[in-house]
Amino acid sequence: MDPHLLRTYVTVARLASFSEAARDLGYTQSAVSQHIAALESDLGLPLLTRRPVAPTPAGERLLEHAGALLLRLEAARADLDRFAAAPRATLDVAASPLALTPRTLAALPASGVTLRALPREGVPVAVATGEADAGLVEGIAAPSDPLRLADVAPLAATRVAEEPLAVVLPVHHPLADRPGLRLDDLVDARWLDAPDAGISLDRLRAVHGGPGGRGFRDALRYEGTDTRTLAALAAAGHGLALLPLPAAQGVPGAAAVPLVAPRLVHRTELLLPAGTGREPSGPVAEFARRLKG
């Protein structure tokens, strides 16, 4: 399967237009049509209806594979490019918002740094494809367990920190004076859904393991990346939030009650490309050394 044809197909399916895909890819519309026809001929199946432009059932199934296939190819190219690349004098870091703590920020070199906040799932992709030299990713896990990350490419993950978790709620909430809280007691509570700034409700449902993944109703969805805004929303009574204890403390009007069951921690990991056959050097090595120190 020619990856160029596959990339054209994904673009046409995403934009639902041959002409828009041609503009996006810098091809003529005729070339796009030829690419789709060649891919359909190769697979022996129609992949798109033409009026309107939409994936067929076979095309939908191909889309389920296409993203991972194209990402792997891009990661493979970036991995091989690193063998011939000269040592870099600058550092590009991709990080999920909750990984940006005083400790990780203090580890950054004094100059020559570009820092980008990305959703959690975007951090391994950025490192794998060469868009970032290093990544900081975080999530919830059992104590001392590694994070479960998508297998996008060979990456080396190193533990940076493990912190307790806390439920953030208004100071006058009936549960605010508890010494600790259990997820079992909060399944029917109203929660803030903030996948990019806090712990997503999907993750809470997964670790709780309740019937059919139900519970943890969302009262408000926050699509920003500012953790302090998320905590302020919890303090204002818009829903509960789960955050690392250091990030949950000191928010005006909010109480941070430790999560005591299940036994979970908030884990932060440093991601670096693996398998290049040489140790990191320059700003990447300095950053890694400071994080491990």
TrEMBL record:
<keyword id="KW-0238">DNA-binding</keyword>
<keyword id="KW-0804">Transcription</keyword>
<keyword id="KW-0805">Transcription regulation</keyword>
<protein>
    <submittedName>
        <fullName>LysR family transcriptional regulator</fullName>
    </submittedName>
</protein>
<dbReference type="Pfam" id="PF00126">
    <property type="entry name" value="HTH_1"/>
</dbReference>
<dbReference type="InterPro" id="IPR036388">
    <property type="entry name" value="WH-like_DNA-bd_sf"/>
</dbReference>
<comment type="similarity">
    <text>Belongs to the LysR transcriptional regulatory family.</text>
</comment>
<feature type="domain" description="HTH lysR-type">
    <location>
        <begin position="1"/>
        <end position="56"/>
    </location>
</feature>
<dbReference type="GO" id="GO:0000976">
    <property type="term" value="F:transcription cis-regulatory region binding"/>
</dbReference>
<dbReference type="InterPro" id="IPR000847">
    <property type="entry name" value="LysR_HTH_N"/>
</dbReference>
<dbReference type="Pfam" id="PF03466">
    <property type="entry name" value="LysR_substrate"/>
</dbReference>
<dbReference type="GO" id="GO:0003700">
    <property type="term" value="F:DNA-binding transcription factor activity"/>
</dbReference>
<dbReference type="InterPro" id="IPR005119">
    <property type="entry name" value="LysR_subst-bd"/>
</dbReference>
<dbReference type="InterPro" id="IPR036390">
    <property type="entry name" value="WH_DNA-bd_sf"/>
</dbReference>
